[in-house]
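CORE FACILITY INTAKE
Project code: CF-77B
Contact: R.S. (postdoc)
Sample description: multi-component assembly, two entities in total
Requested service: structural model of the whole complex
Turnaround: standard
Below are the sequence entries exactly as provided by the requester. Do not edit them.
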Amino acid sequence: MNVTDPPDPPAPSAGPAPGAPVRSGIPEHGRIPKYYAVKTRIAALLDELGEGGPLPAERELAARFEVSRETLRQALRELLLEGRLRRMGRGTVVAGPKLEQPLALASYTEGVRRQGRRPGRDLIGLDRLDAPAALAPDLGVEPGAPVWHMERVLLADDERVGLESTYIAVARAPRLAAEFAPDSSFYGYLREHLGIRFGDADERLETVLATPREALLIGTPPALPMLLIHRVSRDTEGRPLERVRSLYRGDRFSFTTHLRGEGGSPGGP
Amino acid sequence: MNVTDPPDPPAPSAGPAPGAPVRSGIPEHGRIPKYYAVKTRIAALLDELGEGGPLPAERELAARFEVSRETLRQALRELLLEGRLRRMGRGTVVAGPKLEQPLALASYTEGVRRQGRRPGRDLIGLDRLDAPAALAPDLGVEPGAPVWHMERVLLADDERVGLESTYIAVARAPRLAAEFAPDSSFYGYLREHLGIRFGDADERLETVLATPREALLIGTPPALPMLLIHRVSRDTEGRPLERVRSLYRGDRFSFTTHLRGEGGSPGGP
């Protein structure tokens, strides 16, 4: 495989100091893609500019780094996808650090609030449908039983950052459509209105590309890498509760977890 | 924002049944990008072909779906990035499901073995360096103290699937370079040779684009979305142990976790 960019001469090496925990991306065979060398230099410039600092115009950057507009754009595109840059109105600014969301039973609302951001949700739709066979067991119902599907855009300080799709049996929350304020915490509603408490959940995380519909709803570039979390949860009595598909902007979120040694684990105490 | 593809007429809607837990990506305003409609139809074809089935030739697919080679390639590129397709030799085949790795203190080796795959590691480098100030506290040493940096490519059944970068104080494992077999489990070595057991760890997960160097080492397309896990761990006595940067192919891995209600959590019992 050839990752070099043959028409361009090799650019001088750049990147973090040797031994820095996050290592530079320069291949060791000597040649580095031109766009990547520029990306490394722009990343250093972004550190100087600081969060919220406006990115200089493309033609100015192309001139400063002596590259074509096309090469420059490839570098900027990656910095955008990775969340180092952010579009703001018609300009582009240096992005802040990614939000850190704990992997925990606590809700999105609680996680965002803990970071001093204001959580919000915009309702896309609340539908009642017949449980497909693949979904029914996770909700503790027979196939064909009525289930709610609620889809909401996740907000942090009015910025659209994710999309959440929740399925729950109508039998568990019969008055959902009438009672629930869709911009509030669903978990808060279950707890306070229905006395339902979360017992445990299985989660699976992966990275996926935003579909055109998702990109449109969240306001991201199409095919932005996203973090997708599938959750199946049960109440404190072990009864199936909900199935959730949560999609978070990969350029805006990271997830944290604390691992402890367990009795059954070879690494445990 | 416009996610449509104006030169092409709108294609017929396609995708999973309404209410399917993983929803279709078709925007609701009526127009869908041509490449995305083709992608949905190819995805259905891949289900029919089954894992390992060879993908028909590009010109055949372009003719069947009545699209340009360029539109077809955009669809295939996304299916490759998402791990639905896999390059094999000179051809492309239907990929199997992503490997599911538990988020646990257990090592990569143990996680892969549990799924019936054969784990392996190729040593890229084992260097001794002076601890940079940003790294020293995580390893429980003063800045400038000698630390090991070990970099290994992660393998599953001889397929390169990730890249792991481990930092540990030389004082913790003085004979690492002489004693450790680099294709074996590092955690097994710490346990069996040094009697060190893992107590707990903090992890942070995010999605990043593979750098050219990483893409070269792992054998992925440059800029493939990856899952990056930062780990800082301590032994059973609470002393700092290691810092690890693990990069996994986003098209080949997902991570699972089991969440329990905790005393302090509002969602807990």
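Facility notes:
- Chain B has eight helices and ten strands.
- The two ends of chain B are 44 Å apart (CA to CA).
Invoice: internal transfer
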